[in-house]
Amino acid sequence: MENPFSIIDKRLDRIESLVLELTSKGAQPIPQNTPDLLSIDEAVLLLNLAKPTVYNLVSSGKIPVMKKSKRLYFSRDELLKWLRTGRRKTVEEIEEEARGYVVGNDYRRAKK
């Protein structure tokens, strides 16, 4: 029977050679096969909303959409941009904006 430490040593050598082989080939980028146009189901997944909610946003004109042959298509970039426009300011940002407004404007009433 072979020494268990020698078995472990052989396996470690094999693992090391595999790791070196993989690193020598370089990291291959994973191709991004994401289409720019999304169906309603894909838009629902991207936005993490219910399908009726998305339909409601479409009918009220609150979400960017394209309609062709009775089908709705959404641009991934436009949807992500639409999501970013809904960003709410933090308390610190609001306070900083208020300070800038107060400093820039003189609130004293003009004497009549």
Automatic annotation (TrEMBL):
InterPro entries: DNA-bd_dom_put_sf, HTH_17, SinI_DNA-bd
Pfam family, one: HTH_17
Species whose genome carries this gene: Dyadobacter soli
PROSITE patterns documented for this protein: IQ
Descriptive protein name: Transcriptional regulator, AlpA family
Domain (Helix-turn-helix): residue spans on this chain: 37-86
Superkingdom of origin: Bacteria
NCBIfam families associated with the record: excise
GO MF entries: DNA binding
